[in-house]
Design a protein that fits this description.
The protein has 306 residues and is α/β, with parallel strands linked by helices. 27% of the residues lie in helices and 24% in strands. The strands form 2 sheets. Strands 1, 2, 3, 4, 6, 7, 8, 9, 10, 11 and 12 form an 11-stranded mixed beta sheet that branches. Helix 1 crosses helix 4. The chain is globular, with a radius of gyration of 19 Å.
Length: 306
């Protein structure tokens, strides 16, 4: 990568937040109403990222922009990309009853003509930690190319919710740290003995243990623009099978899983000890506010971000 080109941060903020019950992307969690993604943007700026690209739904673009433009002016470049059901669907007979967006990989595909530099992609409603952005920036500047990408790998113990089970993409790697597969495991939590376990079905009584430091993907990934062409090919294949589906989703982890089957040693898993937290459930909100307060009290962030 040329030293004159700085990487961008792409933020997935077009989701419907059906489990959470409100538009959590723009909900304030900091002491001055800061959203979770503002802490990510702050960390990205400090790490060296030059631009942030928000993927949003056009229906709340005006409110969204009003929340961020004044705060970020002069600090980082901003761009907006709209995810809509009809983008990149030409030639396919899409069901008119579809309401749900096509998923995270389709959202990423919507940036195809807007991203021309290496980039990291994150969820809007997840907190990732400073170390993760430093690691991502260093990879994008020094190691990313047209066929070499990366996932920031979190220790499973740092990604659990206190208010319910979670689904995590467990990263299986080779000795060199390259991704071999992502195995989506659901119903993960700590049992009464404090051990991390999961069940294969809700009604199952059998608990299967997982190691505390198992590396999992939290959708913090690093790509070059070349990945978007692969994404488009994958979406065409997806629509060939799912154009009439009301709920099928085209997801980044599945796309990456297909990519590594075709390309050996192509996706590096970069471990981080950073704590992750997010708002999967409404009950997570006060915990997130408390954790942000602790980060401010320990001088990880200023009381007022901007």
């Amino acid at each position: 990568m040329s030293s004159s080109v700085k990487p961008s941060l792409v933020i997935l903020a077009a989701g419907m937040a059906s489990r959470y019950g409100s538009q959590k992307q723009t909900e304030g969690f900091g002491p001055n109403g800061e959203t979770i993604m503002e802490y990510s943007i702050y960390d990205a700026i400090e790490a060296g990222f030059d631009k942030v690209i928000f993927i949003i739904r056009e229906s709340f673009a005006e409110v969204f922009k009003a929340s961020f433009e004044t705060k970020l002016a002069g600090k980082i470049k901003t761009e907006y990309v709209f995810q809509s059901l009809n983008k990149f669907t030409k030639g396919f007979d899409i069901t008119e009853d579809r309401v749900k967006p096509w998923g995270t990989a389709h959202a990423l595909l919507c940036t195809k003509f807007r991203v021309n530099e290496p980039f990291a992609v994150i969820n809007a409603d997840d907190y990732y930690g400073k170390d993760a952005f430093i690691s991502a920036y260093n990879f994008l500047v020094n190691d990313c190319d047209t066929k070499s990408y990366a996932i920031i790998g979190y220790n499973l113990k740092n990604t659990l919710s206190e208010n319910g089970t979670v689904t995590r993409g467990v990263c299986n790697t080779n000795e060199q740290g390259y991704l071999l597969s992502i195995n989506e495991i659901s119903l993960i939590n700590r049992n009464n003995e404090g051990n991390i376990v999961y069940k294969e079905a809700e009604e199952s009584v059998t608990e299967i243990p997982l190691e505390e430091n198992t590396l999992v993907s939290m959708n913090f990934m690093c790509f070059s623009p070349s990945f978007l062409a692969y994404c488009e090919n994958g979406f065409n294949e997806f629509l060939s099978n799912n154009a009439k589906s009301l709920k099928a989703e085209f997801l980044i982890p599945n796309l990456v899983g297909g990519y590594i089957k075709e390309n050996t040693n192509a996706v590096k898993v970069i471990p981080t000890n950073a704590d992750w937290f997010g708002v999967t459930y409404k009950e997570d909100a006060p915990i997130v506010r408390q954790k942000i307060s602790i980060l401010i009290d320990t001088d990880k962030y200023p009381l007022r971000l901007w």
